[in-house]
Amino acid sequence: MATDDRDVDEHLKLDEMLLAALPEGGKVVSVKPSGLSDYCNTYRIEVKLPDGSSQVFFEKEGTGEEGRGCVESAFVSESATYEFVPEHVPRPVTMGVYKSRPDKHFFLAHFVEMIEDDIPRSESYIAAVAALHSRSMGKSPTGKFGFPVNTRFGNLEQDNTWTASWEVYFTRQMSDYLEREDAAHNGEPHEELERLRPLFLEKVLPRYLRPLETNGRSVTPCLIHADLWPGNVKYMNDGETACMYDACAMWGHNEVDLGVFRNPRYPFGKPYLKEYWKRVPISEPEEDVDNRNTLYMLRSQIMLSILYPHDPKLREIFVSNMRLLVERVQEEEATECDRPVAQSHL
């Protein structure tokens, strides 16, 4: 067990259970806030070891049932991603509960120094993402889509019940998110969204998901990060290697992670997508990839509208993209209806 003999108020010293997770014989040198988090507190903990060297750790702590869920999501997600890409993920240590506060939960990992202001260029960013997908492809512990626990996008719980079909799994999640998006806005009427929602669920999702699993095709689950916005991927201090963290992991279709690169909210765009396709093949049918990319972008846009309901722009953004996909499917259907039927000469 480490010790915390800092000259601070007793209530500011580290809890006994957290000290037990730190290196044996270490002495806590400093505890400082680390980064921004809307739902948990985060800290940088420096520990001096008996040999005179130092180690630095990252702690995330949350209170109550919501805090427990966020901490569990962080620990299990980071442990899973670290297994496949340890060079790109901070090494998890443990999760636990404070002895002094049984309602307070914590996640502990090794702290990685990163360059805060720079967004990794496409080659570095994609090297980490593609490595995670490629190394984990086909290694789902059940062979299905899902995850051992329900992970969190912010504090938004993600239903990760193991499911054999990607279409069924993703449709269930999207239906759930749209219900929660409505609840987050207190059922506030939105005529266009009400019109589009059933068309999206009943026409768009089958149109772009079902072909992945029909006519001899299938989706092989891989581990995805599921929250690759720029705040969760930074350069390590070498200015070359990308570090990924704060995942809300699940075993799913690898292309889900690419939705963020299309989102105009973030400074990515086509160079990141092109770099990814150099390393990982496009799923068949290839001709649907652009629309699937829009669909997977829509997932995170809906989730943001749930988390920040007081920003009306977020709702209008995802509604406009939903309209785009609905109209594309309707145009396809109209073309099919207008196509002349071949006459039989028998």
From TrEMBL:
Q: Which reaction does it catalyse?
A: N(6)-D-ribulosyl-L-lysyl-[protein] + ATP = N(6)-(3-O-phospho-D-ribulosyl)-L-lysyl-[protein] + ADP + H(+)
Record-linked Pfam families: Fructosamin_kin
Membrane-spanning regions, if any? none
What is the superkingdom listed in this entry's lineage?
Eukaryota
Read off the InterPro entries from this record: Fructo-/Ketosamine-3-kinase, Kinase-like_dom_sf
GO molecular function term, any single one:
protein-ribulosamine 3-kinase activity
State the EC number(s). 2.7.1.172
Protein's name in the database: protein-ribulosamine 3-kinase
Q: Which organism is it from?
A: Parathielavia hyrcaniae
